[in-house]
Amino acid sequence: MKVAITGATGFVGSRLVQRLHGEGHKIVVLTRNTTFAQKVFPSEAFPNVEIVAYTPNASGSWQSVIASCDGVVNLAGEPIGEGRWTPERKQEILNSRKLGTEKIVEAIAKANPKPSVLINASAIGYYGTSETATFDETSLSGNDFLAQVCQAWEAEARKVKDAGVRLVILRFGIVLGNGGALGKMIPPFKLFAGGPIGSGRQWFSWIHVDDLVNLILQALTKPEIEGVYNATAPNPVRMADLSQTLGQVMNRPSWLPVPAFAIEALLGDGAIVVLEGQQVIPKRTVQTGFEYKYPNLQPALTQILN
Q1: Of 124, 187, 267, 284, which is least surrounded by CB within 10 A?
Q2: Burial of 270 (0-12, 13-18, 19+ CB in 10 A)
Q3: For residue 197, what is the DSSP state?
Q4: E strand or H helix at 73, and its extent?
Q5: CA–CA distance, 54 with 186 (Å, rounded to integer)
Q6: pLDDT, tens digit (0-9, with 9 covering 90-100), for 243-277
């Protein structure tokens, strides 16, 4: 295959490129920063990777590369868990997803021949937060800021169906691997200062990065996969259980809770990402016959940390 990827230098995207490249596929990396992308994917190690400069929120000549691709994976978006959510930051978070997806869909609509599939990232923030409810792919959306972002993001992606292109929307849970959210949790545990964040009762719906990459590959290669799928492991946990399991795997105590006010002081509104969660079940994903390598948290953390 030949696959175009946005967000390819990120935590998930770089793993996806490595996997596709290892299987002999060609990859077009659409990036705002070609110098950085060339460092991440040096040509001698990644001869099948073509790096193309693009402006995510503007039409341009970059859109023509889509015509030669079999599939497009759109992972781009400003990080949500870093820094305070000022009004400007919230606008960036929204625009990077809404406008970025709009321009990808526009490129697909112009393409001749067209790619056969668009795989578009979304997030479990779509459902809003709850300590008691359980959500699957049929659940209604929430009404907080992140839910509104996901609705706008997915609405832009759905327009690709007007061009007759198969659409798969993957609502990502918290992705566990070397880096990402876990990378920020490990240092306190190493210093014997780890513990649950906030009340510890909030749900933590997660997925191992290898399972997420496998899910994207399944979506690329199986034409019967279409619509919305939760990209989460089938066994979500509460924050207190996550902390306890992380402490066990690292052979460290997990007795020092991080108070909610400390996270709020650091992240402002963005604290909702870690202080409030949602219990998300990948009902449709399991129905496809997808086999998780890491359905349970302890083996996932053990693999990552070892």
Answers
A1: 187
A2: buried
A3: B
A4: strand 71-74
A5: 34
A6: 999 999 999 988 888 888 877 877 778 788 788 99
